[in-house]
């Protein structure tokens, strides 16, 4: 008699969850790097949509890690506690900031961005499928090609009367940070040639429309990547120590860097004059180095004359100007602890993590303010992406034939 067939059980809910998760990752890994090159608000709009899709998928199939242990580990992590101290000090600074309304609005946006990153973290499946993670280098390649085309032919492709709104600059910064988890994923799969080609393509995209901040960020990230690949412990220690130390002693930097800049660039160079303004801020009101001027004062202060227009627009300056020694030192410790924690993960991912930390810190030091929402959204996206890559590093190799024979004999 013919053997009865065993029909496979199909669960439409699990299929729907897998489809939603694939769409979410496709939006986060592919669509976002492409659209970020042409739309300024692509990061702020698309990232929440992708995270919502991941949350719905996790609610359906429940393949994420248990939430309660994850929350317990997070609440006891030194880096997270230090970061929460920065947020609480920012809330407390609302009592002395002269721009209460804008500060409350910006702080709410900051809280929403942190919440987005946490929700994305909790919604990630316990084990990431390789098919989803291979979308990441694909998206970086597509974004780089779009950036190259826009850099070469953007003036001819743009409709008449439309001014450059800086979308390409923001999109390139997103590529500079996303390339590191993409490289880490490819190298963890022993695809070193593809990883090298991806890095060269991103570098080519930056040279089409050269920008000092972007090129410096990629170069510093590459240096950290190279050192950590050769000496992992040394690379982690240097990245953590230098980043935290620069943030901790930032008020001393203009006094050290201005004479050097004046000798190299001349005393009237814009960068040297900006350092002179920073010196004046430090010496005029040194008591404010303790409490800071309050949240959102660095940006708004320029508009009302509290600050010189050529004052630095970097995280190093704005942390100390707005949050003082408490916020700056807490942020420095959080940065140090985060980098050291990243150096204890899977060895194959450590060089990419250090390259990303170094590149992001360079961007913050050279040209991005403290609370730009598009910048905070990029940081949140990169964190979620690195966690996804880390969860794709589980063992998938088949057991050896000899081991199979032993199991059958048992």
Question: What is this structure, in a nutshell?
Answer:
This protein is mainly α and 410 residues long. 75% of the residues lie in helices and 0% in strands. The protein is built from 19 helices and no strands.
Walkthrough of the structure:
The protein has 410 residues and is mainly alpha-helical. The chain is built from 19 helices and no strands. Helix 7 packs antiparallel against helix 8 and helix 11 runs antiparallel to helix 16 (315-342). The protein is globular.
Features:
410 residues; mainly alpha; disordered N terminus; disordered C terminus
Number of helices: 19
Can you give the mean pLDDT?
85
Residue share in helices? over 70%
Strand fraction: under 5%
Total beta strand runs: 0
- Characterize the largest beta sheet: strand count, sense, and whether it forms a barrel: none
Net shape: globular
Unreliable runs: 1-7, 159-164, 396-410
Q: Please identify the structural class as seen in this structure.
A: mainly alpha
Radius of gyration: 23 Å
Series of H and E elements: HHHHHHHHHHHHHHHHHHH
How far is the N terminus from the C terminus? 33 Å
Please describe the topology of this protein.
Blueprint: H1 12-35, H2 42-61, H3 67-75, H4 78-92, H5 100-123, H6 130-133, H7 135-157, H8 167-188, H9 192-208, H10 212-230, H11 232-248, H12 253-265, H13 270-284, H14 288-291, H15 297-304, H16 315-342, H17 350-366, H18 373-390, H19 401-409
Helix pairs in contact: 1-2, 1-7, 2-5, 4-16, 5-18, 7-8, 7-9, 8-9, 8-17, 8-18, 10-11, 10-17, 11-16, 11-17, 12-13, 16-17
């Amino acid at each position: 008699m013919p053997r009865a067939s065993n029909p496979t059980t199909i669960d439409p809910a699990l299929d729907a969850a897998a489809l939603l998760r694939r769409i979410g990752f496709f939006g986060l890994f592919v669509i976002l790097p492409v659209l970020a090159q042409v739309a300024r608000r692509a990061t702020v709009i698309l990232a929440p949509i992708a995270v919502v899709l991941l949350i719905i998928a996790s609610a359906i199939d429940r393949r994420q890690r248990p939430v309660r242990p994850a929350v317990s580990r997070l609440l006891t992590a030194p880096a997270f506690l230090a970061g929460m101290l920065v947020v609480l000090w920012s809330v407390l600074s609302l009592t002395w900031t002269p721009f209460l309304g804008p500060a409350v609005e910006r702080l709410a946006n900051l809280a929403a961005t942190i919440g987005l990153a946490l929700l994305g973290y909790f919604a990630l499946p316990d084990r990431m499928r390789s098919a989803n993670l291979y979308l990441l280098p694909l998206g970086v390649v597509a974004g780089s090609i779009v950036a190259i085309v826009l850099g070469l032919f953007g003036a001819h492709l743009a409709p008449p009367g439309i001014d450059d709104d800086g979308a390409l600059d923001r999109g390139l910064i997103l590529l500079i940070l996303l390339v590191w988890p993409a490289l880490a994923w490819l190298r963890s799969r022993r695809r070193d040639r593809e990883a090298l080609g991806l890095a060269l393509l991103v570098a080519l995209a930056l040279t089409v429309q050269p920008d000092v901040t972007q090129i410096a960020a990629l170069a510093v990230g590459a240096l950290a990547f190279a050192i950590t690949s050769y000496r992992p412990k040394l690379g982690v220690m240097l990245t953590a120590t230098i980043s935290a130390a620069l943030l901790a002693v930032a008020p001393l930097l203009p006094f050290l860097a201005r004479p050097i800049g004046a000798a190299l660039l001349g005393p009237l160079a814009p960068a040297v004059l900006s350092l002179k303004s920073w010196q004046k801020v430090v010496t005029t009101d040194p008591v404010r180095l303790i409490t800071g001027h309050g949240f959102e004062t660095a940006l708004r202060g320029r508009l009302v004359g509290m600050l010189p227009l050529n004052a630095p627009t970097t995280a190093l300056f704005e942390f100390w100007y707005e949050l003082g020694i408490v916020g700056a030192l807490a942020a420095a410790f959080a940065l140090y602890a985060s980098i050291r924690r990243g150096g204890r993960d899977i060895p194959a991912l450590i060089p990419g993590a250090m390259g990303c930390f170094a590149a992001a810190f360079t961007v913050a030091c050279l040209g991005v303010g403290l609370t730009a929402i598009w910048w905070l959204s990029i940081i949140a996206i990169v964190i979620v992406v690195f966690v996804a890559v880390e969860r794709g590093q589980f063992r998938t190799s088949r057991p050896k034939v000899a081991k199979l024979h032993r199991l059958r004999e048992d």
